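PROTEIN SPECIFICATION:
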Amino acid sequence: MSNTTAQVLMKKGKRGAAAYIHADCAGGSPQHLGPLLDVLLNPSKAIDEWETIDWCRWLLAGGRTPDEFAAIVRSYDKHDKCGLVWIPRVVAYRCRTCGISPCMSICRECFHRGDHSTHDFNMFLSQAGGACDCGDNSVMKEDGFCSNHGNKCPRPGTAPAELMCVAEAMMPRLVLRLLQHFRENSTLTSSDNYRVAIQECEGYVQMLMEFNNMGDLMRGAMTKALINPQMYRNLVEPPFPDTEYGHYMCESHNMYEKAIESFPAPEPPDEYRDLPALAPRLTHNTLLDEFLFWTFKYEFPQNVVCFLLNMLPDQDYKEHLTRTFVLHYARMPLVLEGSSDPETLSNRVVHMSVQLFSNEALALRCVRELRLLHVMVLSLQLMMGKILVRHTLHDPARNRHRVIDCTRRVMKEHCYWPLVSDFNNVLSHRSVALLFLADEALVDMWFEFLAMLQGMNVNVRETGGHIEFEPSSYYAAFSCELEAAAYPMWSVLAHLSEPAQGGLARGVVCAALRRLRAWLRAVGYDPAPTPALAPPPPAHASFHFPLHRYLAAFLCAATRSLGLRAADLLPPPRALIALAYHPLRVQSLFYEILAGVWVRNGLQIKGQAMTYIQANFCNSMVDLDVYWLQVCAAHLPADSFLDMCIDVFGVREWLSLTPLSLVQAAEQDAMVEGLLTFLAILVSSRTNLGNDELTQSRLEVATLLAAGDKTHSQLLELMPERSGNAHTRNFEQVLKELSVYRAPPRGSEALEQGLFVPRPVVWQRYYDPLHVLRRAVHRRDFHSSMDRFTQYVREKRKAEGGSVGGACGAGETEAGAALWPPLRPAPPPPPAAGDPRQLCASGVLHGALLAVLARGVRRRGGAEGEGGAPPDHVLALAVYLLAVAADLAAERAADQREVCLVGGEGVESVGGVPLLRAFPGGSVCDNARTLVTHVPPPRRAPANSPAPRPPSDSEPEWETSESEMGPPSGMGGASSALAVPHEMGGASTALAVPHDLSGASTALAVAHDLSGASTALAMQDLSGASTALAVQDLSEASTALAVPPPLELVRGNSMSDQSDAGDETEIRALESDINELQALVLLQHSLRPTDGAPAPDHQMSLALPSSPHHFTPEEEWSVMVGDESPPPALPAPQPHAAHDTQVQVHSTSGEQIAVNESIISLLLKLHSQLSGRLDSFALEEPAPASQEPIGDGPFFIAKLLHKLAALDARCAAAVSHVRRSLWPHQRERQAEQRARERREKEERSRRARERQAQLMREFARRQAQFLSTLDGEGAHAMDWDDGPPERDYDCVICNTTAPTASHDPIGLVVLLQSTSVLAHRRRTSDPVRLPLAEPERARLAALQQATAGAAHDRLLEELGAHWERDAALLAAGAGWEGGVAAQSCGHHLHLRCLRAYLRSLAAPQRPHNLHVERGEFLCPLCRQLANSVLPLAPRPPAPPVPPPAADHARLAAQVFEMLQRDRPAPSPSRLSEAMGKAMEDMTATAGGKLKQRYGSSPAAIFTFVSSLVRTNLECELVQRSGHLCAAPAPRYKPRDDCIVPLMAVAGAHAMALAAAGARDALGAAAAWRALVPSAAPVPPPAPSAPPVPSPPAPRAVPLLLRDPTTLLIHLLLLAPPDPPHLDPKHFRCIVWALYALTYYQVVNQLVACGRFRGVLASPGAGSGEGEGLAGAARLLLAALAPDHLLDDDPPADMDDDDAVPPADLDTLELEVQELTLPFLRISALLKKHLYGCELPHIESEREEWSALRQFLELGGEGGSLPPGAATAARGWARQLAGAAAGGTLAVARVLRSLHAAWRPPALLALPREYDRLFTYYHERVCLQCGAVPKEASVCLLCGTLVCLKAACCRQRQVAEAVAHAAECGGGTGIFLVVTSTYIIVIRGRRACLWGSLYLDSYDEEDRDLKRGKPLFLSRDRTELLQAQWLAHRFDHTKRTWVWHRDSL
């Protein structure tokens, strides 16, 4: 029965059946719809059958047409919300001003209808799809709604009830049919099969989308069907009827059950099994539930997702969809893991979820009712739990922790991203975030997930060979931590801002501590009980510790704004040490990588270090690590923390002054630098320890600007990222405060962008080198910032009249001294977090800094063999840490009101303990003046200890320059190095010690032959237990030194670093300044007596070799023991010398390393070394008044010494005592030295002045003598050659200079290009705009027919219709399309040299960007591209006697004779071969287009040859803006090198054609005879000899129809015997005659156009024919009137520009001048090139005509024509009248359009706003293929839209853009790519990215519209692009060419 009913209804037709069904449904109980739908929606039919879909559309319309029904339904749309859903790669907008949620986006239509012009918005190309939020006040502010949505639109009336009755009845069955299709294909298991099933229902889903787009009424009908539980039960639940459909539904139900069973939920923990979303089996109650299930199952098909999202404006549906989505959410990991394309799937999932979770109220309801957060965290845990592996960071035997395997597909392809994105989106809501923090179990669950990331991606250092395979998984680990850990953390922290929320932060901190303790137990980490015995840094390391960073972040928030104290939250010290180890190890790992320790691990390990501090990661990683270590440093004992730092960095040996090998020293030098940098950052950084958001923004912007000037987008991109837009909130304000915008310079070819330049305040207040180091991904950024800082200081001091370092005590430096980094003082941090500066009050740190200073001083003095001295910035860091310690001590003294001790010069000393334990206390004053006498070496490592770190084979990334390294040491190892000045200037120095009072003495004699002077040093034991050294300066005496035994002398580097130190006492030269060659100074301090061996009775002397600089391996040491050679007698020392120079040298029985230094003594020595003078510091000198940290090393050291002296008077006394000991009376000696040097300088200046005066007198005497000799010689002595010298040329290959010759020609390097620039000239100067609407496109198409190229084609076609093709070609020329333009760099070379050069380029290692087979090469000198050489012909010999002056007729006759003269065939030579090769190159460049159009007859060949000259002359004129006026100067000045060689080549080929018998065919003589009738004499009788056979001459085109400029070039090529060398008088004659022709042609044209009607009718217009303008018009009118050629009635098809009204005589005169100017300009250019005449200086275009006539010498005043011009014109007119018989109309059209004032070509004018262009062309259809191009590109020459890089429009394997460039631009195409704003230039076989014409408000490009900011047209760039096009300069100005291979 049902089938019968359906058949009856279907016979009514679609509209009739629809009306019947509508009436049935309107009654309330439809009886016939069901049977009809059973037939239409029968599952046995294909779901996408078009007939079924069409029936559904008609049925839904209810008797109306589908379009009518849709319009009616839309009329009742409420327009509350837009809800438009888009797919990927659709343009949308995001307005941050109007957005409430960061995910807000609106469609293009809503954006343009709203008012967002002053808002912070951007346009973007959607990557995952989206939906428009316009009208949704939960996502965006109502002010941003467009006029069609929200409360701004009018409300419609109430829809009639029966309107939607059919839709409501049909919709459940329509949805069911789609579900049935999904069930049928549910057995498929692969993603590819899923895609096939979705494609089969594409049409059906599209139908549902059309219904949904009808508006609120239809959307409501669909959502009711989808969310009605009863309807679902009626449709799909059993029992089913016993029918065919019932059986099908039963099978369908079974398929559904199997699909449910194959989609289980992951196994949840026991405590969460009751969650509805984690139920083991899904339960569906509505059609929407099952629909969403199939959406998950089929991997979120794009069309299905869009269908579901289109109904979101319905609130009930949105809530039901969100709930259903959450219930299915636990299955998300299963879908993501099984997809073959997880990236696309992730985008589609987020496309849906972001729309559901952006509503805070809805998200909060899901969290409370459905435990959404628990579901998300568990889903992440269960996904990541499948890829866990054993952790290898610590001992595998004790490590029970399991961590994520970063090499698995889930990590590499970011399958987890949709889950963490949703989690982050939900936590962005404040209410949800607070709920998350309040749930302790949920926080623990989240930390359990983070523990899976803790320590992932472990790096194992390679110690053998280089790693073979570099893993690429490191970025997956960084991305995972950032996205899965950091982003949610920042989202939550953004909501913690009130003290009332302190409990939440405390709970998170406690949870983090609990999880970290569990993690430490799991990995088996147990901190060493004694820091000194801590193991060396392990070979395993990781960058990833999110638990530590969570702890740091929440602790920072708690102490910063929530009122908590860190001390109340932290664990005990022992646990705190364990928690500090791993972040500290990350810091050491970072500096190890920079030091090259991990170099064998490949580039990926350096990539990890760079990523760790990169802008997107630094806030979430390095900043939190540093903050946590700052907290640990503030709450741990300073010595313990520093001991751990030293051991983790592995520099204990270095800091213990242990001798090291060169390799060990180099590695540990870099690690010491890293340690000091880290400690300085630790004590000074306030990023998370006190800086507010504005202050931190200033610091970050200043850091970026310090490294280099940057664009706005670079600054914004490099700003450290937190979450949301927090990192850019104050960006614009801070940027304006700290920088100055510098616009790109106008006229530059570099396409520069706008840059921000730092203001002086950046360097004065905010530049922090430590923060630059912390942010510098590349170390060159730090060095660049220091260079820029130095430059700023130099300019500042120069302006102030000071030196580089400063002035007036503020960092004044010596000339050329290097500035130290301006390290800022460390301010006190907030008390709640603790003060990390307490590290500086540590004896361990002071001992380490003493070691740094000691090695620096000794290495600079050449006293160690372990490499160069530490770089200046390492010493600067050490001095800075001491300064921080002094500032801290001053603060504590001020707080505790301590009283400084006064008096006493006693110096405390310590010895025999390790250097790092030498200072038991933390007082910087006490430790600075304490003398360390000697230290033991560090303990030997036990046998079972781990092996030391192997040496690296990479130098540190900060390389030390040679200027910073000290001189090589003469001796090394454990023994002392003794430095002796090698030059004494002829004087000797003596250092003497009194004899021992007890009689025991030991003497060491040092003899050194120094230019006759001797030096001896003697030291004698004073008491047996000690050794005293007396220093005394004795003029012209020897110096002796006596030392006690045992003594062992060691050569240079002969002692290994692993050898024992020996039992000897170390003797050091405590002061050895190579620059101070007058004295050798040895230091002594008053020390406690120490035990030592008794002095032996024998004596020992040592003889030093006489090497002036250092000891060489060939030199021998001479040690004499016993009574041999006693030292010479010494003078008695003075008493004060013995008192001031006492020193105690310890002699111990065990291994000891002598130090004998204090921090103060080392600072004084370093000050002296850096200053380059002895005793350079004195406390009496005032301290620097300025607090600016600007200066060199002595400045900062002096500042520190003043601080110490001000803190403690004993420090001041120690400074004075050390100075007296080191440099007694040095100040007096320096004053004497300066006075002596001043006197010597004055004496040298006096002598120099005397010598200069003597030289000047001698020069004057010789000059007078020469002039007198010259006057005595007669003028006949000089014989000058009057002939012009032959020009010499420089060959750039062989570097020889010679004139060109026929046997050895020289050529000009040129680049030949095909060009159609001239074809794009137009008559109007108004810019032609790129069309942005259909009317504009039609107007542009019409204008394209009015170009010079189109006009020439029409002219040639009309001439060809009445004359032969050859005659037409000779008359009109070759045209403007496909010509050849020649560009030269101006360099010359021998052609033989070129051949050898080309052979070398043809080698296998040829340049990749040259087509050598086509003759391309780079100029050997300037490296510009070239492809040919124009040979230079030698100048012909001058005639013996110059021709006499003759009148115009005689000159014309001579020209005619030259044209008539027979031409001999050219003789073969190398020059002729070169000219033939040049012509072949030009012919090949022009391509086959000209050959196909014009053929290969002699006339066609000659036309092409002459067009080469014409094209280049016209191109030069175009470069000059179309005129020859002086201003404005062209952007590219045209070169004048090519025209004459080009004419020589063209003339040679013209002569060859004439010699071959084509002279008559070319018609030049006949044309000249017609042009100047008086020039042709009566022809003589024919000779008896047979004539040379020649092709018959074609019937010539009348002169009044020929192009005068073309004829001029023809004559110049054919008349001279040696073209282009023509006598100037003959040149003037030809030009004058052709000017007359031009004049009459123009008058003829104006008469034909009716412009003379009023003039000829007036009585005062003149009566004689040929007299004046009116006379010329009457002459032509009289001659041509009978043939009606000059009828003034314009035809109907004439252009508006041609049909002009009549004018007066003055106006006509101006028009004649305007139309004759093109001929005058070309003639003037020819005269300039041929004869070297300078063009006249013409101020304006109004003066150009008269100035050019005068320059060309064309007649006198009044513009007279040549004699006989009127008679000749009458003959021309008769010739025209006779030739026009039968073609009057065509000839008349030619007459009216023969001459035109063409304006220079220009590119199409573009709109100012890029959005207008983008909106019109982005979705425009290609006219050739009918599709929307993926990369739509617009030709800027003609406005054609092409498919760039698409295969759809290829023809003959050539892509559309390449073919269009050849057709439109002669091989040059300029295309604007709409989707990227970039210009692509195609030049022949190459293409390049030129740049963008559109810039944002900061003059910056936005390639691919990634930023989406408003873009505006750059006028300067547009002018540059056009200038390069007109000047054919693309090949010379762009260097980024690639071969396009016909694929663009």
Residues 1226-1272 form the longest helix (47 residues).
